[in-house]
Amino acid sequence: MSGEPFDKRDGWIWYDGALVPWQDAKLHVLSHGLHYASCVFEGERAYGGEIFKSTAHSERLRYSAELLDFTIPYSIQEIDAAKRLTLEKNGLVNAYVRPVAWRGSEMMGVSAQSNQIHLAIGVWEWPSYFDPAQRLKGLRLDLAEFRRPDPATIPCKAKAAGLYMICTISKHKAERRGYADALMLDYRGLVAECTGANIFFVRDGVIHTPTPDCFLDGITRRTVIELARRHGIEVVERQIRPEELSDFSECFISGTAAEVTPVGEIADWRFAPTGITHQLMDAYSQEVQPKKAAA
Ligand SMILES: Cc1ncc(COP(=O)(O)O)c(C=O)c1O
């Protein structure tokens, strides 16, 4: 996505408890979050004025911070309320919501025991994560060189800024090679996820998706599994080897930003994302709409 740089836009950002003009929402270059990646964030979407699964995202944000050994000084309810307020103040109903928490500047070594914890929330319009034309045809995915690391080496359940370093490198390389994104294997060589979304496959009417034992168990992923089962579609969570990709007929990815997006190819493997993929795209679009209170 190009357009106006993010620091030059207008609007309001919630910053440490107050709404501040967008361009005043700054931090010092000597911030621990910037140098040592002590920073966690969320990606959420509001539909029709309501953030889909807001509380689940706020819970994950606080949990990610705990995994990085810091506590966000706001409760789940306060974070939910701050996100709503930021949307309202910016006059947005359909929007992407980005809370971010980080360690400040009090100490600037590896140890940062007494650093202040900051929280900011930005919201903006972000209609489609992938080019709509590519989305319609089914994305083309490269195979990434970097692998999702062993959970013994990273806090793999945290949505932590540092864990995205290999995602950005992998996505850049894929884009340079003409692909929309990249599939990442894990440290064992098993199929894991994309650089910002989980992955699903279909074979003989059954959905197969990797067990999230070393990567994010996405909120969208869990929603898609629930929707599939509600539609009577069997979902198997298991280890998937890359050689098995030739056996699958459909492939799609899921994530808050990506929503449910069909995949047409991964390296030399081809898919025809049709029946189940389209069924779940529709089901997800309906599910995210605010539920009208019964009259
Ligand atoms: C690496 C990665 N995996 C999976 C997901 C999907 O998570 P969710 O559905 O909670 O947005 C995301 C997006 O946040 C992600 O960045």
TrEMBL record:
Keywords recorded for this protein, A-Z: Amino-acid biosynthesis, Aminotransferase, Branched-chain amino acid biosynthesis, Pyridoxal phosphate, Transferase
GO BP: any one term = L-valine biosynthetic process
Q: Per the database entry, which stretches of residues form a coiled coil?
A: none
Which Pfam family, any one, appears in the UniProt record?
Aminotran_4
Name the top EC class.
Answer: transferase
Q: Which residues cross the membrane?
A: none
One molecular function GO term is: L-isoleucine-2-oxoglutarate transaminase activity
Q: What is its EC number?
A: 2.6.1.42
Cofactor requirement: pyridoxal 5'-phosphate
**What is this enzyme's catalytic activity, as reactions?**
L-isoleucine + 2-oxoglutarate = (S)-3-methyl-2-oxopentanoate + L-glutamate; L-leucine + 2-oxoglutarate = 4-methyl-2-oxopentanoate + L-glutamate; L-valine + 2-oxoglutarate = 3-methyl-2-oxobutanoate + L-glutamate
Pathway it belongs to? Amino-acid biosynthesis; L-valine biosynthesis; L-valine from pyruvate: step 4/4; Amino-acid biosynthesis; L-isoleucine biosynthesis; L-isoleucine from 2-oxobutanoate: step 4/4; Amino-acid biosynthesis; L-leucine biosynthesis; L-leucine from 3-methyl-2-oxobutanoate: step 4/4
**Organism domain of life:** Bacteria
**Protein family per UniProt:** Belongs to the class-IV pyridoxal-phosphate-dependent aminotransferase family.
Q: What does this protein do?
A: Acts on leucine, isoleucine and valine.
PANTHER family hit by this protein: AMINO-ACID AMINOTRANSFERASE, AMINODEOXYCHORISMATE LYASE
What is this protein called in UniProt? Branched-chain-amino-acid aminotransferase
- Organism this protein belongs to: Aquabacter spiritensis
Q: Which gene encodes it?
A: ilvE
